[in-house]
Every structure is written in structure tokens, then in C-alpha cells.
Amino acid sequence: MDYGQILSKYHYAELRIERSADSLVSIKDEEVKHSSGFSEGVSVRVLENGSWGFASSNNLNDIEMLLQKAHKLAALNSGKIKLKLPPQEKKESGDRGKATDGEGQIKELLEAGKLMKAQSITSRTISSTDSTLKKEFYNSQGSEIIEERLYTYVSCTAIAKSEGLIQRGSERAWSRSGFGKINLQEIAEEAKNKAIRLLTAGPPPKGRFTVVLDPEMTGVFSHEAVGHACEADSVVDRESILAGKLGKKIGNELVTIVDDPTANDFGGYRYDDEGVEARPATLIDKGILKTFMNSMETAQELGLELNGHTRAGEYSEVPIIRMSNTYFQKGDSTLNDVFDVRDGVYLKGMRGGSVDIFSGGFMFKAEEAYEIKNGEKQKIMRDVTISGNILQTMLDVECVGNDFGTSPGICGKMGQEAPVSDGGPHIRIKNVAIG
């Protein structure tokens, strides 16, 4: 079928076709659950009279009917939407590697699960999601983009119990080259060891302290507190604390944060779901707010460049602005410099939290934490929560390490999910509230 010819009948129209094959293995102790499946579907968007119309189906033969439906929906309203259109693209790309068969996954995961056994471990869960996704994009401007992606995501959780105290240790890993590239032994043992360590942890202090964040916590701050506030849809809707602050100083010169979909990481891709080529977006450069993550619509409205940050969770969902790989850029300080604290707290790993991008308030809970005395890690602590304001915290960053690490994740927004990663170096922040 000549999709370009069909789409050219409309002022602006686009077509997305997706085919996916998924395998999910979950093992709790020795109980195995395995499911697999294949799905395909198509969706269209039509812009007419400044308004969008959207329609989707799991039947690829419905394309012309869907376009007519979307056109009618768009024509019902008179809107003000204008687009900054990308150049025509005709590209095909794909990840290297192949999905592992379910039987092979189960065998390896069972072996890894055994490594989480210990006297104090009462429950062990290990799971793996292995997905291949083929996406096709066509629009009325003549673009034809085909991209194939492979995702593997593994998580391990161990529950430890001693004298009535229950603690959890979790670890996760990713691959874009297949299940065989993941070090299952390493993440299984770290999940177990983390749970056991936390059994000996004491309660947290209360008050304001200098804190050191590990790369995972640095990444979480970059993603949750900064990244969501830099998504241009929230800026246009005046829901972000960063609205109206482009070009202004919002942090000290140690703070540089980039969202880079071109990085070889879990959230990477070549083209977004509007057919825009992915480009790194330097959100904050040495404390200055430089840009936002954009769609064609917000780039036009805000007068900014396209950077390919619009994705849909699946074919049946409308593309929305999303993060990809969000990184706090490393600095020049050694770890000894970062930990040069008389009295402080070291926070490792993320265990939940919340952010209000309108007020700038945030709260994060660390998986584990350590007291810092005269530059040395001391006793372990549990249930340590930090809170603060995005803008004040970026001003209070006082040391940035020259190391770097990243962590994978699945980000939720408006009921949709997307693979992402975040990370950075160890950083030190003064005057942080702990409770």
C-alpha cells in the first residue's frame, strides 16, 4: 500500500504501525510464571482547522477508515495548533541482537534466583521482560521511517527478616542487545546483600544535613525533579515551575543536565513518534535554563528547536512529550573531594518519592543510607527521606564528582509508560532536609 499517497490527501496526517513480540518470566521463590504474545496495530493523526483527530485499530486494513474518522474528529473543532515540521526522512535502523526464548530465560533466571538464598532471606522474586518492537512511521510530508528496537529489563527483589524486622533489597539491569548481555549473578547477589545489610540499619537522623547522592539518586533527581519540569507541554500549560525562566539562572554553575535519546542506553531511539530525529537537549547548562523537551506543537509555540522528544506508550495512544536518557553531567572532583564532609549523610538507590513540578517541591526516599563522619562512611541507616525545592536544591549543589553511572526504568505519564534511563556522578548538596 502506498501510504504516502493516502496521507497526502490531508493538510497534515501521520500514520504509525507497530508490531511487538513480548516474553515475561516471573519467578517467586521456585514458582514460575511465563507469558508471551504478539500484537500489532495502527494509529493515525490528522491536523485540520488547528485541531487534532486521532484514531487507532488492531486491524492494519482499517487505515483509510481511520484517517476518515480522525479527519472528522479534527474538523469538529476549530483550534489554534500549529506545527514546526521536521524535514522529510526516509530511514531504516534497528538494534542488534535477538530476543531470548522463554525456556532459556527460565533456566537462567532459576539459577540466578538460587543466589539470593540466605538464612535471613524469606522471599525471592526475579523477573525478566524481553520485547522486540518494530515501528513504522509515515506522514503527508513524505517521511518513511522504520525502526526496530529490542528491550530486556530484569529485576531482582529479596525480602529479609530478623527479629520481627523486615527489609527489602532490589536491583535491576537492562540490555538493548538481548537477555544474554545481562549479568544475572551480579544483580541477584546485590539484591540479597542489600536486604541483609538493611537488617542492621538504624533509624535516620532528623534535621538539615549536607548529603551525598550516589549516581542513581543523582539520576532520580535529574529525572523527577528537573526532567518533568522541562517537558514543554507542562511549560505551555503553565504547570511547571520553570515556565518563563528560559535563559535565566536556576542553579549554580556546577549543574548541567542533558536529556539524550541518542545515547546507547535503555531510553535511546533514533526517531520519535512524530518522525523527528532524536537530538540531545541540554536542559540546564552551568546553571542556566537553556531549552525544553519539545513536540512539533510546543516547538512552534515556544519558538524552540525540534529535539525529538515525543513518544507514545503503544500504537493506540497519542504521542506525548517524554524524557529518554536524563543525565546530570559529571564534574571535575574526585570521590574523596565529594565525600569531604565533617557530618553528613550518603544516600544510595531510590525507593519511591514524589514531585510537584508546579511548586517545585519534592520528596525522595533512599534505598539505603550511611552516616558520613570526617569524609568516611560510618553506620548504615534505613528509611531515610530527603525533601526540598527544585530551584533551591540546584543552587545548593556544592560538589560534582568525575565518576558516572546510569540506571534503567519505566516512566509513567498520563497513563502511558516509556523506557528511560537516568544517571550522573556522585554529587554533594548542602542544607538538605532529612526526616
From TrEMBL:
Stretches assigned to the Metalloprotease TldD/E N-terminal domain: 13-74
GO molecular function, one term: metallopeptidase activity
GO biological process terms, semicolon-separated: proteolysis
Bias (Basic and acidic residues) ranges: 87-103
Keywords on record: Hydrolase, Metalloprotease, Protease
Location of region: Disordered: 84-103
One Pfam family linked to the record: PmbA_TldD_2nd
Domain annotation Metalloprotease TldD/E C-terminal: ranges: 207-434
Domain Metalloprotease TldD/E central: 111-199
Enzyme Commission identifier(s): 3.4.-.-
GO cellular component: cytosol
Gene3D superfamilies: PmbA/TldD superfamily
Keyword Cell membrane: no
Family statement: Belongs to the peptidase U62 family.
Protein name according to UniProt: Zinc metalloprotease TldD
Taxonomic path: Archaea, Candidatus Micrarchaeota, Candidatus Micrarchaeia, Candidatus Anstonellales, Candidatus Bilamarchaeaceae
